Amino acid sequence: MKPYLSYQAFSALTDANYFLKAHVAYCAVVWNEIDLSPDTLYLRGEIIEP
Q: What are the sequence ranges of the domains in the chain?
């Protein structure tokens, strides 16, 4: 999410307490009125090896 935090739509997520309230709804990551689409997650996501 770090690259997106400079956008006004995601600026509220700079508050760590608010960011930790993320949940999944309808295949999207959601924070109340803010959401990250599943298409964005798929297209821009990166595999992280354990």
A: 2-44
pLDDT beyond 90 at 50: no
Q: Kindly give, in sequence order, each residue whose CB lies less than 8 Å from that of residue 19, ignoring residues fewer than 6 positions away.
A: 1, 13, 31
DSSP class of residue 15 equals: S
Task: Output DSSP code: residue 44.
Answer: H
Q: Using one digit for the tens of pLDDT, what is the confidence trace for 18-30? A: 999 999 998 899 9
Query: Can you point out the beta strands (E) in the chain?
Result: 23-25, 28-31, 34-36
Q: Which two tokens stand for residue 49?
A: 């090896």
